[in-house]
Amino acid sequence: MTSSSPSHIVIIGGGPGGYVGAIRAAQLGARVTVVEEGALGGVCLNSGCIPSKTLLGFIELGERVRHAQSHGLKLEGEVGYDLPRMIARKNEVVSGLVKGIGLLFKQWKIAHVAGRGDLIHDRTVHVRAHDGTESELQADAIVLATGSSWPNLPQFPIDGQRVITSREALDLTDIPRTALIVGAGVEGCEFASLFSGLGAQVSMVEMMPTVLPLEDVDTSAVLTRELKKRKVQLFLGTKILEWSATESGVRATLETGEEIVADIMLVSIGRRMNSEGLGLESLGVQLGARGEILVNERMETTVPGVYAIGDVTGESMLAHVASAQGKVAVTNAMGGKQVMNYDVIPAGIFTLPEVGRVGLTEQEATKRGLPVRIGKFRYAGLGKAQAVGETIGQFKVIAHAETNIILGVHIIGAHAADLIHEAALGMFGGLQVTELAEMIHAHPTISEGLMEAAEDLEGLAIHQARKRE
Question: How many domains is the chain built from?
């Protein structure tokens, strides 16, 4: 640490941006204090990414067991789900990971203050601890990592019983017979997979014409087909006109005149940035139209020495992006010179089947006027996929037609969220799609599908039938 670097960094928020930033700052030699009013790990760890993926993991396992007989396994009886035990196991996973962060804090001598923090000066944080005491922390640099929360929508007031958010959904101990999901984005589609897997009859309402409207058209098409196979009713290109509570749940009427009756209604439409009540305006920290804290590529706000990272910046609501921003922010607070690069950000969607994506979608490339070539390969053409019974899905590679540079890769199928990182590394290194095609892939593996999709751009995929022209 140089003499000009701050000796004390205070981070408000202990989510995937805040706690990762805290550890990196400590590694660089700073004295670090994290103010967090909830559990360490934030929404992602406690009521988002980890708990939902834990429960979806049970559904995936259960469905594999259901199909085991066709693979030669002898099993007796029906596969069922013990939801209370599943929830207990989910809580065990979350608790263990939260404790793990606490242990890392102790190892790096990071102070954790349980309470709410706000700014009363560009170098002073006021803390209201859970025990009622108040104190002030003097800092050389402050990092705002307050995240986002479930929006309070007047048309869908959350009561925690009939009308719920994902937070309540992850603690249900009774399997609903019927579930209405408002919104068919990432979260909505993941919960459609979860609820339908548990045996609930699921209805989804989405005002856009497709599920996963921000994803590639082919990914959306495959997931639509698979959701219908799971008997999920899709009401697309419409919205709820009115709804009312009933003795046993909710009744909703759509713009189309169709009516949906369900035990619960899960509202999954957007997030709200947690920028209110922090004292930002009085200090001159500038906010955007959505309440996001405006930052530059160094994660600096409009006030010197005050940084912001994660969901609250509105840049990208992904946990791994928040973590990367946290590293950049504290490195710069310590006198370094790092900038945040958003060009290559892989993402996973944990529906059934799973989705992995990086770069541009086909529709985004078209909108930008880029000349593209596209290669595709289906999971069913892979020996490994056939061997393990994971034949649903496809690989899609989008390349610039003139430079052959990879513009985007979209995978839907088994292990897609893991497989996407090979493509992301190729894009990060500026590889041409021919280099991806020429790299020898181990056989038999699912990753061979990426090689074959890259080869398909030239019409050279080996395991894909193509008519001679």
Answer: 3
For residue 207, what are the domain limits?
A: 163-267
How many residues can be counted in the chain?
A: 469
- Looking at the structure, tell me whether residues 86 and 14 fall in a common domain: yes
Please name the amino acid found at residue 334.
M
- Domain end (from 290, 307, 333): 333
- pLDDT beyond 80 at 467: no
Asked whether residue 19 falls in the same domain as residue 107, the answer is: yes
- What b-and-e string marks burial along 267-287, b requiring 16 or more CB atoms within 10 Å of the CB? bbbebbbbbeebebeebebeb
Nearest Cα residue to 203 out of 142, 170, 245, 250: 250
Residues 13 and 144 in one domain: yes
Residue 132 lies in a domain: yes
What was the pLDDT predicted at 179?
98
| Residues 296 and 423 occupy one common structural domain | no
Q: Which residues are catalytic?
A: 443
- Examine the domain organization and report whether 168 and 97 are in the same domain: no
Q: Is the pLDDT score of 207 beyond 50?
A: yes
Q: Are 25 and 333 contacting, i.e. CB atoms less than 8 angstroms apart? A: yes
The string of DSSP codes covering 20-83 is HHHHHHHHTT-EEEEEESS-TTHHHHHHSHHHHHHHHHHHHHHHHHHTGGGGT----S-----H
Taking a C-beta distance cutoff of 8 angstroms, is the pair 156, 182 a contact? yes
Answer yes or no: is pLDDT of 2 > 70. no
Is 342 contained in some domain? no
* pLDDT score for 131: 85
Provide the 8-state DSSP code for 405.
Answer: B
Q: pLDDT tens-digit profile of 378-416?
A: 999 999 999 999 999 999 999 999 999 999 999 999 999
Does 254 lie in the same domain as 181?
yes
247-252, long-range: CB < 8 A, 24+ apart: 249/162, 249/178, 250/162, 250/163, 250/180, 252/180, 252/205
Instruction: Report the predicted TM-score, pTM, of the whole model to 2 decimal places.
Output: 0.94
CA Rg value for the chain: 24
* Domain co-membership, 169 together with 260: yes
Q: Is residue 248 part of a domain?
A: yes
Q: What are phi and psi of 215, to 5 degrees?
A: -95, 175
**Structural domain contains residue 284:** yes
More confident residue, 203 or 71: 203
